[in-house]
Amino acid sequence: MNELTNWLDNVLRQNVPEDVTAFCFNLYDDGDNNWSLELVGTGSFDVDDTDWPCYEVTDFGTRAQPFAWNKAQKWGRVLTDVVSVLRKYLKNGKYAHVLKSKSAVGVGFVDGDIEILFAK
Known about the structure:
The chain is an alpha+beta fold and about 120 residues long. The protein contains 3 helices and 6 strands. The model has no long low-confidence stretch (mean pLDDT about 95).
């Protein structure tokens, strides 16, 4: 998913609003093997509050321009693949420092659990 890394670089080169506390990657099952991913900055983070991604400050324009792809996979495999790419990005990505400058980074389907990939 090199395209995902390129998309992330483009999104993360933007200025992050001061009131962003954490980041969450929201995954969507768009039907017919179509998937999409957006990045939101949230105004709070609490590992014990599963609603923390709902306190959105910005979507960095990714709601209108999400990372989108078509692949015949089950949702669990899609999540595993995206988590793998994001973990690599957090280690070696061009703008990993931007993500790690805040309290946490999470990922998950919008109607499911959030997996925390990074927390201070």
